[in-house]
Amino acid sequence: MKRWLGKAETTLGNHSDRLNAINIFPVADGDTGTNLYLTVRAAAATFADRSAADEPVNDVGAVLASAGRAAMEQARGNSGTLFAVFLCALAEPLGGHTRLSAPLLAAALNRAQIRAWSALSEPVPGTMLSVLEAAARAAGDCDTAHNGDDSNQALGLALDAAVNAALDAVVRTEDQLAPLHAAHVVDAGGVGMLLILDCLRSAVLGEELQNELLDGLHGYDLQDPHIHAGMPDDDGVEVMCTISLSPLAAATLRQRLDELGDSVIMSQVGSASPVGSASQVGSASGGASGGTDARDDDDDDDDDAAEASYRWRVHVHVPEAEPAVAVIRSLGDPTDISVSQLSMPRDPGLPAGQHLHEY
After folding, report:
1. Which pLDDT score is estimated for 134?
2. Does the bond joining 26 to the residue before it have cis omega, within 30 degrees of 0?
3. Cβ–Cβ < 8 Å for 67, 46
4. 5 and which of 20, 44, 300, 309 could share a cystine (Cβ 3.0–4.6 Å)?
5. Buried b (16+ CB within 10 A) or exposed e, 54-64
6. d(CA 347, CA 256)
């Protein structure tokens, strides 16, 4: 697992510029490669000092869960957030296991693709979601065909099948999304996930990366100027934060953010903890209004105390930051709130997705 994420960090670093160049969906902001690279780097960094970690180093799921939490806390953009969701979910079926096998790979990839699809309020086919789904289905079919064989040979076949299916899914993205079809390119996030899966195959099997996978991918095999640079500017900003909420408050926040903008992603970070305050659930249900009787609040305390609180990573694209930040703050106490512009900077000396505010 250390070898996989280290290899993925290096590979995405090498490919980030080309991934940025074809990044035109959901917004043409040219930062998918950078966001994926920085998020994977955060995950890989957890292995720098394993002696300080609480998790046993021979537990595949525990090691990946630790990396997934770090990725989620430092996730960047749509693609980085979805990778973090993928990694956290991938770890769950692997908990307590000391090695990867074809049945475990199939279960983990299936869990990861389901979680990634459900993290988005409005998931769209033709993105890295479709690539994940295709890889999971292929690994599952391979495992079924070999009757749950847990040998290394069966694992190799399942990894081959997953990567090949991911490649086919990347090719299909061009015709699944109108903006990609018009620009004659494949989805940048999908290519990034293909690279990550091929890094997993390479690390597990001890083989080289299959660079030929990228041959012929429309828009990717050309070293021309960034395609997104010719696209119309996208108004608005990207708001991200981490916040502890009950499930009810989280559902309310998702609904309100859906009303304010799009590309809403909400995913849990770590495990549940008891709610120490009734404010989250009260706010979410509208019980925090000025006319609420204090005795009603007291009566609700016992119910609220039974609620579980989860840390959530929140991501949304909105026209203006202030209404979204206000909604988030009305439901809890967020940390690490950051706001970045979606449009390409007018000043060529500033990086894409430049930082605007830190709340």
Report:
1. 98
2. yes
3. yes
4. 44
5. ebeeebbbbbb
6. 33
- Given a contact cutoff of 8 angstroms between Cβ atoms, the answer to whether 150 and 101 are in contact is yes
**What is the distance, to the nearest Å, from the Cα of residue 275 to the centroid of all Cα atoms in its chain?**
26
User: Per-residue pLDDT tens for 35-48?
Assistant: 899 999 999 999 87
Number of neighbours of residue 45 by Cβ within 10 angstroms: 16
Q: Would you say residue 68 has pLDDT above 70?
A: yes
Token pair in block for residue 6: 């280290």
324-341 confidence digits (pLDDT tens): 999 999 999 998 888 887
For 238-282, the pLDDT digits (tens) are 898 989 988 888 888 988 998 898 878 888 776 655 444 333 333
Q: Report yes or no: 228 and 17 within 8 Å, Cβ to Cβ.
A: no
Cβ contact 273:308 at 8 Å = yes
Tokens of 296: 């009603």
Smallest CA-to-CA distance from 44 within 79, 4, 96 is with: 4
118-155: string of b/e by CB count within 10 Å (b at 16+)? ebbbeeeebbbbbbbbbbbbbbbebbeebeebeeeebb
Question: Per-residue DSSP letters for 52-72?
Answer: G-SS-TT-HHHHHHHHHHHHH
Contact 70, 39 (CB under 8 A): no
Task: State which amino acid sits at residue 20.
Answer: N
The model's confidence at residue 136, banded by pLDDT at 50, 70 and 90, is very high
List Cα–Cα distances, 203 to 68, 105, 140, in angstroms: 18, 14, 20
Helix (H), strand (E) at residue 221: none
C-alpha pair distances (Å), 30 with each of 18, 181, 234? 9, 17, 11
Q: Which of 44, 71, 187 is nearest to 124 (CA)?
A: 187
Which among 23, 282, 35, 41 has a CA at the least distance from the CA of 127? 23
- Token readout for 324 is 């979204």
Q: What is the amino acid identity at position 89?
A: A
| Res. 10: pLDDT tops 70 | yes
Structure tokens at 279: 């404010």
In the chain, which residue ranges form alpha helices assigned H by DSSP? 2-21, 32-44, 60-73, 77-91, 102-119, 128-145, 152-176, 178-183, 188-205, 247-260, 279-284, 294-305, 321-331
